[in-house]
Amino acid sequence: MRTVVFAPTFDGWRVAARALLVEGVEPRSVVWQAGDDQQPLLGLADGQSADATSPATPDVMRVPRRFVEAAQWAACHRDAERWGLLYRVLWRLTHGERGLMEVAPDPDVHRLLRMEKAVRRAEHKMKAFVRFRSVEHEGETRYVAWFEPEHDVVEHAAPFFAERFASMAWSILTPGVCAHWDGESLSFSPGVPRSAAPGEDELEALWKTYYASTFNPGRLRPGAMRAEMPLRYWKNLPEAPLIAPLLHDAPARVRRMIEQRSEELKRPPRRTRDT
Amino acid sequence: MEVADKLAILADAAKYDASCSSSGAKGRKGGPKGLGSTEGTGICHSYTPDGRCVSLLKILLTNVCIYDCQYCINRSSSSVRRARFTVQEVVDLTLDFYRRNYIEGLFLSSGIIRTPDYTMEQLVLVAKTLRTEHRFAGYIHLKTIPDASPELLDEAGRWADRLSINVELPTQENLDRLAPEKKLVQITGAMTHLRDRIDQAKGDAGPRRSLPVFAPAGQSTQMIVGATDATDATILSTASALYEGPKLRRVYYSGFSPIPDAASALPVVPTPLIREHRLYQADWLMRFYGFGADELTTREAPNLDLSMDPKVSWALRNRERFPVDVNRAPREDLLRIPGLGVRNVKRILASRRWMSIRIDDLRRLGIPLRRSLPFIITADHRPTLLGPDSLDLRDRIAPKAAQVDLFESAVAATHGEL
Predict the structure, then answer these.
(1) Cβ(A56)–Cβ(A82) under 8 Å?
(2) Which of A176, A250, B121, B339 pairs with A264 at a CA distance of 20 to 30 A?
(3) Distances (CA, A) of B30 to A168, B38, B91, B309, B348
């Protein structure tokens, strides 16, 4: 068995995987052990010879773009087995199964695609559920959010926020890593506790008014709501505390509407107002 | 009246419009001085317990209306409280919500005040102010008023991503009864006018722009289901004509739900949620699976079967077309197999170039085998007694009654139990 200590990022894994592939080390004899973050370790590759475009790279390194795309997403998954899986798929792609990425029902590919899907979904939910709170600081307005992503998607999602909120100064604080935008460039800093984030924004009262008013008590589908807005996100959504009372009051509201109608049907028709 | 009070009234008044989609706009950025962007797919920023997504700030400019459409909470004869936003109030709310990432943009509609042209001018003014004064590049959906002048409709399209005119009911006879001011001919005429402008703008459009050229996300509409006795066959045939003629992007189906102070011409019934769901499934089959509206219902049964997916229904009526061999059949035949979605059909087509597909492969793709197996052949499976000829097939593949209830039923909708 070979224990490989590597930086647990896509780039760190790629450097290590390339070296193993060149050596011809089979997937079943590798133990992937995440090292301290950021720096590629062990001097496995000096960057030059490991560069896929350099002449030194053997042809076996050429893999379908679809694999690289899926692997970049899957690398952000929190399943510890992702690194071994990535290397196994890479090995198979470079050892006679070039079309493997198209075989979605294959157990390895299936698992890789499921991981990719889960991370993409977590990134999408981050774009959806981040809630900024405005903070006045030295005469400047800054928008600050606290968010707890399901996978390590902050770096993936940050450019979206930079584009969308280009003219605002904002920070998204999370337990793992924080993203900041000053109007010109993105930067990242280590994670912080929740207490570092602002506790309220007076606009949330209006947002809650909107949320409660746009809800239709005549059609309850809490299961559909939870499927798309999983419970894990509720604690950071200002509107979520309204869900229980809205659900609780809905049947009585509908009953009142129906009873009111039944009463009305017994009365003679009302004259229509002139237009 | 405070803005919060107006918001409560005018969001409540707008919620019977099912559409909240922010999709269909091409990717767009507001640039360093602007605010906002759009993505092709849209984002749902929240969900309410009715299972609907909250993507846009969906409000009316005012719920005062000179029309008296019977199904509408805002009709002139209703006793609901009335309110009216100023243009500036809507602009500020949109920007404030957007900056906090609550929404993708604005869906603005209105009761008809004074004249259709006056109302349309006010809606256009909101969109124009957002786009020009605030360089707002988020999503804007404007409700268009069919009898407003063509110049105003054209201007609406300049600022909006999506335009919509609700037909509300599938036939003129239905409209005459419940919404006498609405004329189907006028509505489809306005839709056709807008289609021409959208097509024309598509030809002119350059690469990425910071503002829409002309309603890049196209047009949508809504039909109310269950307020009249119109059959699903009629509703689907009207929908199909709208997809083909004015080339609508989406038709929404809104199960008629109890409203406060409802008019006496309307039924007093819980929202027909299952029927609405079946109509959406049928709509999907027409748009993405190659089904024609006339294949989904029959003369004897003009309404969709509430107990099963319309594709399963169709397969049971057309058993001679099965079993289909998933390792050989062309795409259009795979799309007609119960339980197979567009994405899995694509995966099957790609993977069968490299391998022979077996039952376990389908299971890993997440295909519901109970529904699919009677209709297919795989490398290790051929339906025999269990196949399309067996008499009890319908009972075996139809969802059990309990599951239907769990999913969503009219009973649960009124009592709030799931």
Answers:
(1) no
(2) A250
(3) 12, 9, 17, 42, 40
B361: chain A residues, CB-CB within 8 Å: 105
ipTM: 0.89
Q: How many CB atoms lie within 10 A of CB B165?
A: 24
Are A163 and B29 within 8 A, CB to CB?
yes
Query: pLDDT by residue for chain A (275 residues), tens digit each?
Result: 899 999 999 999 999 999 999 999 999 999 999 887 554 433 333 333 344 444 444 445 789 999 999 999 999 999 999 999 999 999 999 999 999 999 999 999 999 999 999 999 999 999 999 999 999 988 899 999 999 999 999 999 999 999 999 999 999 999 999 999 999 999 999 999 999 999 999 999 999 999 999 999 988 999 999 999 999 999 999 999 999 999 999 999 988 887 877 666 666 555 544 43
Give the pLDDT mean for B132-144. Answer: 95
DSSP type of residue B299: S
* Gyration radius from chain B CA atoms: 23
Q: What pLDDT digit, counting tens, does each position of B85-100 carry?
A: 999 999 999 999 999 9
Q: Which of B190, B201, B36, B61 is nearest to B124 (CA)?
A: B61
Q: Which of B270, B196, B272, B288 is nearest to B235 (CA)?
A: B272
Q: Quick check: A134 contacting B, CB < 8 Å?
A: yes
Contacts of B350 in chain A (CB under 8 A): 102-104
> Chain B contact for A214, CB < 8 A?
yes
What is the rounded distance in angstroms from the CA atom of residue A231 to the CA atom of residue A221? 15
Q: Does A22 touch chain B (CB under 8 A)?
A: no
Residue of chain A minimizing CA distance to B272: A219
In angstroms, the separation between the Cα of residue B345 and the nearest Cα of chain A is 11
What's the pTM?
0.89
Is A254 close to B255, i.e. CB distance below 8 A? no
Please write the tens of the pLDDT for every residue from B188-198.
999 999 999 99
User: Which regions of B83-155 does DSSP assign to beta strands (E)?
Assistant: 105-109, 139-143
DSSP bridge pairs for A180: A171, A187
pLDDT of res. B416: 31
**Chain A interface disruption, residue of B70, B101, B119, B343, most A CBs within 10 A:** B101
Compute CA distances A207 → A117, A126, A129, A203, B81, whole Å.
Answer: 31, 19, 14, 7, 21
From residue B196, how far is each of B121, B145, B220, B249 by CA, in Å?
Answer: 21, 17, 15, 14
Cα separation, B19 vs B25, whole angstroms: 15
For CATH 3.20.20.70, the residue range(s) in chain B are 3-295
CATH fold of B3-295 reads TIM Barrel (3.20.20)
Contacts of B33 in chain A (CB under 8 A): 166-167
Helical pair A10-23 and A82-93, crossing angle rounded to 10 deg: 50
Q: Determine contact, residues A218/B271, Cβ cutoff 8 Å.
A: yes
**Considering CB atoms only, which of A106, A167, A225 is closest to B34?**
A167
Q: How far is A102 from chain B (nearest CA, A)?
A: 5
**Between β-strands A169-173 and A177-181, what pairing exists: parallel, antiparallel or unpaired?**
antiparallel
Give me the amino acid identity at B266.
L
Query: Residue B53: its chain A contacts at CB < 8 A?
Result: 228
